[in-house]
Amino acid sequence: MKKDMIAEAQNILNDNFQEIGYSIPSKGLYPFQWKWDSGFIAIGFAHYDMEKAKKEMKTLLNSQWKNGFIPHIVFHIETDSYFPGRDFHLSKLHPESNLDYPSTGMTQPPVLGFTLEKMYEIATDKDDVLTFIKDNIDQVYFNHQYFYNKRDPQNEGLVYIYHNWESGTDNSPIWDDIWKTMNPPQYTFERRDTTHVNSAQRPTNREYDHYLDIIELAKEHNYDDAKIAALSPFLVQDPLFNSMLIKSNDAMINLYKLIGGNQEKVAQLEQWQAKSKASFNAKLFDKELGAYIHYDLRNEKPIRFVSSSSFSPLFAGIPSTEQAAIIINTMMTKFGGEDMYLCASFDPTSDRFNPEKYWRGPVWINLNWLLYYGLKNYGYMTIAARVKSDSIEILSKAGFYEYFDARKSEYTIDAKGYGGGNFSWSAALFLDMLEN
Ligand code: GLC
């Protein structure tokens, strides 16, 4: 590891922190506040500037809607350097949206519960952080209530996402078969991402037509959850998203017990938790593939591919010891060759694997971070150590980029960092892994 990497990571986080009290993920490419980014970023700040960690969380929570929903992007500033922006998403169409914070009408993985718990674990002044948690945790609970009440039409304890951007893994090959069920018009729009980043590393225009089409449909119905559940061509139970929800349930149970009182909320969380974990294992575990998979709720069929999301249930303590052994074996066989850094975002043995294109193959530090803790949870210390040292090696060779080539052969001359540079969560989660 290079000597000055800690200072560099802190500089990136400090630079990306905006006066209003939130961080941009990366200059130019992502000029607003993103939901799951903010959680990871707060964990990074907690290691050296707890006040910023609190502000990051607080600003995001301020954007919550009257129905408990927390949006995926909060458009704190006006700029035409990003598409699609506030005038496209029009969150104000929803009768319970937050008019003070223009946003998207979709969400992102629910990381806030476990972010609060991590902040507490990291804190040196525990009382101070517990007070902060006490003042804010109910909003996170309210957000989970929204998920269980509005996003689980068959009452299974598994929530759906209605857009690929809600998954956080935007253009994963997992969605390819869903795009085939749609035939959107060709929208006229001006991409902005490809003015910042090489288009070979980003989704295609035709893929964007599908993304925009789902939003148009949701807007036609003023972002009404029931209408979306009935009509969206994209309706998926995602193992990564549901793992984040379950881990955050767990974290809230622990934190409410620390705070004291709140018996009803703890009982409700425990009830959700039992049901969610049971359904997760019954429905999303694919024994033949040896992995957790996505389920297409619109077309009522499993989506049988292995991605880094397939291993995220380790982080939430969902698999049995036996299931953990099976999925870790799959991971090491398919993703863990000597010539590869852990962990590619999509099955490197699949013909859909693309090592340079966003979520179709590159390594992402946030998924590695989840995997690192997940493997430790189950006692796989050697593999956990490899995930950590691979992550540090990649970052030290390529810099704090957004995503990275998994093939070691690509690191001989040029560093292989892709997407946005000085990327906040790569810096934040590096700081956290280093301390653990
Ligand atoms: C990309 C990623 C998403 C992330 C966002 C901001 O859209 O796919 O996961 O939240 O960038 O960093």
TrEMBL record:
- This chain belongs to the protein called Trehalase family glycosidase
SUPFAM superfamilies per UniProt: Six-hairpin glycosidases
Q: Which domain of life is it from?
A: Bacteria
Which organism is this protein's natural source? Flavobacterium frigidarium
Gene Ontology terms, MF aspect? hydrolase activity, acting on glycosyl bonds
Start and end residues of each Mannosylglycerate hydrolase MGH1-like glycoside hydrolase domain: 30-426
Q: What is the lineage of its organism?
A: Bacteria, Pseudomonadati, Bacteroidota, Flavobacteriia, Flavobacteriales
Annotated keywords? Glycosidase, Hydrolase
- What family name appears in the similarity comment? Belongs to the glycosyl hydrolase 63 family.
**Gene3D superfamilies assigned to the protein according to its UniProt record, in alphabetical order:** 1.50.10.10
InterPro entries attached to this UniProt entry: 6-hairpin_glycosidase_sf, 6hp_glycosidase-like_sf, Glycoside_hydrolase_63, MGH1-like_GH
